[in-house]
Amino acid sequence: MCRSSGSPPDHQSDHVSTDSVETTVYISTSGGRTIPAHAQILASASPVLESIIDNLRKHQRLEEAITIPGVPCDAVEVFVNFMYTNRCSEVEMEKFGIHLLALAHVYMVRQLKTQCSKALVRRLTVENVVDVLQLARLCDAPDLYLKCMRLISNRFKPVEETEGWKFLQNNDPFLELEILKFIDESESRRKSTKKHLQAQTVYFQLSEAMDCLYHICTQGCTSVGPHDKEPIKNRAPCSKFTTCQGLQHSIQHFASCKKRVNGGCVRCKRMWQLFKLHSSICDQSPDTSCKVPLCRQFKTKGKQVNNKKEEARWELLVRKVEAAKAVSSVSLPKTKIEHQDYEQEEEPRSFREAMNCHVSVAC
């Protein structure tokens, strides 16, 4: 049998007058404890208790106790104390967090409900997550519900071995189906996100290749450069672009490959597409002399559209690469660009020296 408290808690706020809290009501727990409290304090904290107190006052039955069943006596006392102080200790949350969330939901004490949801999120484990999920669903706590779902989705194998999950399978098949559906949708989102990130990586790589191609054809690098600049010996390897060396080798191959005339070289086809992609994003007019090979020819030929479906796909690729280029240009520090550009102007080197292959990349 729980002991009874003799007088209401002495936690009156400074802004609450004595007249407004002088009416005392009593809360009865299922364990037999009677907790006195000020009617006005309870009514201001909970619209449900306000309605109950107004009904008792209307029928002149304020001496009757308000029953809160199904919850431990100490949890009810912590609940009443919260309505006075708006505070709840970590120890109390540890012991009565689940009970307090249920009380906060039933009696519409929003601040306590928010605190309980956050406290239960911090205490989620594989063992208790199914029980907390069921409570969050009943108490309409969406944040807590989502956190539980994510934990179950991420650690489904160990959760599947718990007693809570076995009980759920036998007693709530609809919630089990809801969880499995969430896991399936989460997996689909992961795959979609992974696919999107892989596509974005390709667009960023193509954007870097465009910058690198322009850098090689206008400034020159270790083995390839414009035809109108003299080569400079003993130049250090290019550190501006990760793809620079490979792209220079591809340009050298493209210039000397005999198979590309008949379209039989895969490597030359890729290089051809890079030149075409550059011409699609190049902002220079066809009348000006862009130093990147085939730029003017592609711009002129691009006006003659033969396959509208392929052209639409190509335009989509161009837009994606332009977007990636805009993002990368913002993220690259200006000082690094200026420093590297200065070095490129100081030491342009023709690729003609490499592999004894004399090739010009001018249009």
TrEMBL record:
<feature type="domain" description="BTB">
    <location>
        <begin position="23"/>
        <end position="92"/>
    </location>
</feature>
<keyword id="KW-0862">Zinc</keyword>
<dbReference type="InterPro" id="IPR035898">
    <property type="entry name" value="TAZ_dom_sf"/>
</dbReference>
<dbReference type="Pfam" id="PF02135">
    <property type="entry name" value="zf-TAZ"/>
</dbReference>
<dbReference type="GO" id="GO:0005516">
    <property type="term" value="F:calmodulin binding"/>
</dbReference>
<comment type="pathway">
    <text>Protein modification; protein ubiquitination.</text>
</comment>
<dbReference type="InterPro" id="IPR000197">
    <property type="entry name" value="Znf_TAZ"/>
</dbReference>
<dbReference type="GO" id="GO:0042542">
    <property type="term" value="P:response to hydrogen peroxide"/>
</dbReference>
<dbReference type="GO" id="GO:0006355">
    <property type="term" value="P:regulation of DNA-templated transcription"/>
</dbReference>
<dbReference type="InterPro" id="IPR000210">
    <property type="entry name" value="BTB/POZ_dom"/>
</dbReference>
<dbReference type="GO" id="GO:0009725">
    <property type="term" value="P:response to hormone"/>
</dbReference>
<dbReference type="Pfam" id="PF00651">
    <property type="entry name" value="BTB"/>
</dbReference>
<feature type="region of interest" description="Disordered">
    <location>
        <begin position="1"/>
        <end position="20"/>
    </location>
</feature>
<dbReference type="GO" id="GO:0009751">
    <property type="term" value="P:response to salicylic acid"/>
</dbReference>
<dbReference type="GO" id="GO:0008270">
    <property type="term" value="F:zinc ion binding"/>
</dbReference>
<dbReference type="GO" id="GO:0005634">
    <property type="term" value="C:nucleus"/>
</dbReference>
<keyword id="KW-0479">Metal-binding</keyword>
<protein>
    <submittedName>
        <fullName>Chromatin remodeling &amp; transcription regulator BTB-POZ family</fullName>
    </submittedName>
</protein>
<keyword id="KW-0833">Ubl conjugation pathway</keyword>
<keyword id="KW-0863">Zinc-finger</keyword>
<dbReference type="InterPro" id="IPR011333">
    <property type="entry name" value="SKP1/BTB/POZ_sf"/>
</dbReference>
<dbReference type="InterPro" id="IPR044513">
    <property type="entry name" value="BT1/2/3/4/5"/>
</dbReference>
